[in-house]
Each structure stands twice: as C-alpha cells, then as structure tokens.
Here is the input.
Amino acid sequence: MKPVQKSYVPSHRDFVVQFASGDYQSSLVSLKEFAAGEVMASLTGLTKGPKAYTSVQCGPGAEDHLELHSDFVYANHSCGPNIVFDMSSHDPSEWHLRALKRIVPGDAVTFFYPSTEWDMDQPFNCTCGTAMCLKTIQGAKYLSKAELLARSWVSPWILELVKERDGEAS
Here is the structure.
C-alpha cells in the first residue's frame, strides 16, 4: 500500500516523504547523511504482487514483482541515481537500499528504474534533468547494455535478460 499524506507516518526513521500536489510529484528525502556504498535500510515487509507502478522487480520472471509497503515507494526515478534497491542476494533477508554516492540530509532519494525493471507497467517521459537523461523510461528491455552499465549498478537478472536479448552466452 502506498502511504498517503492524510494518514502519513514515516516508515523509516532516516527518511520522510515530501508530499506535493500533482500526480507523481511527491518524493522521498533523506534525513541523514549516507556515504557511497553504505547500506541505508533493509527491505522488509515486502509482498509479491502484480507488475505495477508501485512495485519493484526482484527477478527475471514476469511475476517477480514486490510491493514495498513503505515510504520507499516514493523513491523517484533519475537517470543519475543516488541509491539502488539491491535484491541481488538469493536470501531476501539480505535485500537492502544502498547509497551509490554521498547523500546529505535534504537530498531526494532516487533510483534508476531500469536497474530493476525489464518492461515497465507505466512508461513515462523523464524530467530528471541530468546530463545522462534518457528522456523516455520504459524499462531495461529498451536500452542498450552500455546505457544500462553507465548508471553504476544494474540488477543481475536485468543483465542476464540483456544477455539473452542480445544473444550473448552466459
């Protein structure tokens, strides 16, 4: 379930949702400093669900999607992200949110959606404004391997799907 402003209680002490009017304008903001590579939070309370704009893909299958049930659903997309949803371990208790670069209090928490999403439920026009902005975000399926790898981190199942698509041996 996506937290809403009327009944909002932060789900993690180090983050807060900044609600804004308009569709998809709210964002997740850090309340503390994190170093690059630091684990920011464990991913707990996840449940399997259908592919949706609020889900995160956790494996190569079309049914491998999780609902976050937390403030993390407000981590917006950026083509130059500062965090990853690292679900690369076979042990779900080791899944976590990790900083890609230094984050200071007040920074919006962003991730590169195609780093986990093969074919997105709701493609959109990106407005991140970074120098590496791809303009249209549809999922990893629509990007070259080079475009994906330029973002610092991509989920292992996405890289495997790219190899299959491109006819590379595993």
